[in-house]
Design a protein that fits this description.
454 residues; mainly alpha; 73% helix
Length: 454
Amino acid sequence: AVRPCQPDMQVPAEEEQRDASPIRATREERVPQATPAGAGSEATLNGQKPLWRNGNFVLLWSSEIVTAVGDEVYNFVMPWLAYVVTGRAGALTTLRFLQYTPNIALAPWVGRWLDRAGPMRAAWLSALVAAGELLALALLLRWRLNALLLYAFTVAIGIFTFAQWMALQAVVPWLFERSELVRVNARLSLVFTASTGIGPALGGLLTARYGGAAGLLADAASFAVLAGLLQAVKSPPREASPRREPGNLREELGYLRARRPLWVTTLAVAGFNLFGAAVGPLTMFHLAHDLHAGAAAVGLLFGLGATGNVLAGLVLPSIARRLRPGAMMTAGVLLNALSVTLIGLSRSRWQVGAMLVASRFATTSLNVVYGTIRQEASDPDHVGRVFALTSMLANAASFVAAGIGWIGDLAGAPAVIVAAGLGMGAVGVAFSRALLTMGEAGPRVAAGPEGLGG
């Protein structure tokens, strides 16, 4: 059975009332008492049984592999095409900003749709629509290639990939116990990030050999396979609960503010993204323009960076036993700041590759801890709205990425990357006290044989 997620903190008295928040529900209203279908006696994981014996976990694990490879191929191909067409760093960071636009502009509506449709159905439908959009873009690229076409499809595809990502995150707390969330997220993150090593390399090779359309077709195929895998996941049965109105944005913000760990970590991630959103595109531009790397070489170096993701997925459960979530997030921000600064100072491709490993390790640490806090601090019946609203706040500053990229065309990408790294460091220092004192409401790991998502 799924346990209600209650942060270890004081909640204002008025919120203790049953209807104090439009997105609060009690255990009795949800009544998810049955074990997940298809998992048998292994459904309730107690930290002593391998996750591989849970059928739903295996399906989610397979889904993460497929979607990770496709997403990373897409994340390589689109900026590379923008670089080929324009030759400007600003075009790459503008593409990144447009990729975040649905997260900011449509998040409240996407979250409410997810709660009404159910996370599994929302993920399945979003994957199918995204596959169709990618197929259409691949066909159009065979006919015409320009920056405007790339920008338009980035927004359209981003709407449904955003919904699909949120839905997969919302599925996890329904299928697994709270004590297992870090272990499940870390294992899912491990396979996801292992696949991100394949995606950029595959994207670079496909682009160099067959052109960008081949990479987009590969991503479309991955979404089609993902939709099929999701159909096999069996959710726990739930009794019908009274329909609640979603409430307005102010009330939903009040829900987040009443949960200090969730609120503090969301603000910290927003500050991190203020500087970090442009780093990936600028690093690609730095490798291609300043260090004269081709598509295949850039893809292989970004794939090498995924070694850091894999390492984080392996060691994070052990680290989480010893450190509070706030300490883990603070360390992640500061390590990322140092790595990004050194990327800007690097004068060889391999130096950049080594710093990408460290940066990916730190980023995965942040994603796993933050994702687990969001899962624990929100009721599964309304997790869609919580994830949507926190994503909107965390990515609200990403519009700055577009401007940072155009500054890179004037001052040089390396200088702007160094400035972004220093900005990340300032964010880590500014939020360190709040993160370190936010309480025990974050993720903890039950002892088990195997020892966060992103």
